[in-house]
Specification:
The chain has 129 residues and is an all-alpha fold. It contains six helices and no strands.
């Protein structure tokens, strides 16, 4: 169990957006948001991971807070490292379109998908307990 389950759900939503290219095109580029979402962008994901949490800086500090264990910390570290690489190549002022069309973006989608799958399983197991 984590201390802040609602914040964990926000993390899972962030990972869902990073793992889904169709969502990125539809919502981030075309601003065609699903019901219940007024606005979303890559910038929102970055703010959550880098500003609102310690996940980008020190994922181990989030264990028990919004992530379950060291495995999840390593998964989040991989997601943030993939985003860092995109920033190293394109800088931090590129458009969402430039980011998601870059060759480095494939890695972001892959590691976010892997993290999401593992963390959703972990969340489901925690609910069963």
């Amino acid at each position: 169990m984590v201390k802040y389950p609602k914040m964990r759900e926000e993390l899972l939503e962030t990972l869902r957006s990073l793992a889904d290219r169709e969502y990125q095109h539809k919502v981030w580029l075309e601003n065609d948001c699903p019901p219940g979402i007024e606005y979303d962008s890559f910038d929102e994901a970055v703010h959550f991971l880098y500003d609102d949490t310690v996940l980008a800086e020190n994922p181990d500090a989030a264990i028990g807070v919004i992530i379950e264990d060291e495995k999840e910390a390593r998964l989040m570290e991989a997601v943030c490292q993939a985003i860092d690489l995109v920033f190293e190549v394109l800088g931090t002022e590129a458009s969402d379109e430039e980011y998601i069309k870059s060759s480095e973006w494939t890695r972001v989608v892959e590691v976010a998908s892997k993290a999401l799958q593992a963390m959703e399983v972990q969340s489901q197991e925690a609910v069963k307990v």
